[in-house]
Structure formats: C-alpha cells, structure tokens
Amino acid sequence: MSSGKDDKKFEKRLTDLEEIVAKLESGETPLEDSLVLFEEGTNILKKLTHILEEAERKVEVLTRDMSGSLATEPFEEEEDK
Q1: CB distance 75 to 59 below 8 Å
Q2: Residue 74, SS3 per DSSP
Q3: Which residues of 41-69 are buried (b: 16+ CB within 10 A; e: fewer)?
Q4: Is the pLDDT of residue 65 over 50?
Q5: 41, 20 Cβ separation under 8 angstroms
C-alpha cells in the first residue's frame, strides 16, 4: 500500500501540473517561458502516468472460484464504450 508521503508527492506533482496548465492557458506567458513550462509539464505528466501505472499493477480484484475459494486476479480496465 502506498504511504502518505507517496500520496503527497503525487498530489504535489498534480498541483504543479495544474498550475502550469493555468499559466499556459492564460496566454500571458512569453513564448520562451511557455516552452519551458510545457517541457516541465510533460515531465511531470510522465511521472504521474508512471505512478498511476504502478498503482494499477498493484490493484487486484478479489473473486470466488467455482469451489467457493477466494482467489485474486489482476485488475482489468473496462473498455470504453
């Protein structure tokens, strides 16, 4: 299970990304600064994606097999409809 410290790192990175997006969307940031912010944002996004992928691999769904015994199986995403 993830620790509170890991959760804070994720939340901090997400907040940082949201701030970058807001600055870029404002249209008030000079082009050169916007490019730096964009690069920083993409790096943060990669880290967040990695954290979420790791969490997804750890999720298991508890199920019962035919004999009633408990078993685990990997979590599978629902397909978009």
Answers
A1: yes
A2: strand
A3: beebeeebeebeeeeeeeeeeeeeeeeee
A4: yes
A5: yes
Q: Give the Cα separation of 25 and 28 in Å (integer).
A: 8
Q: Which residues contact 44 (CB under 8 A, 6 or more apart)?
A: 13, 16, 17, 20
pLDDT digits (tens, 9 = 90+) for 8-55: 899 999 999 999 999 999 999 999 999 999 999 999 999 999 999 888
The encoded tokens of residue 19 equal 């701030």
Q: Distance between CA 37 and CA 70 in Å, rounded? A: 49
Per-residue 3-state assignment (H helix, E strand, C coil) for 7-63: HHHHHHHHHHHHHHHHHHHHCCCCHHHHHHHHHHHHHHHHHHHHHHHHHHHHCEEEE
* Pairing of β 60-64 and β 70-74: antiparallel
Rounded CA-CA distance 66/14 in Å is 42
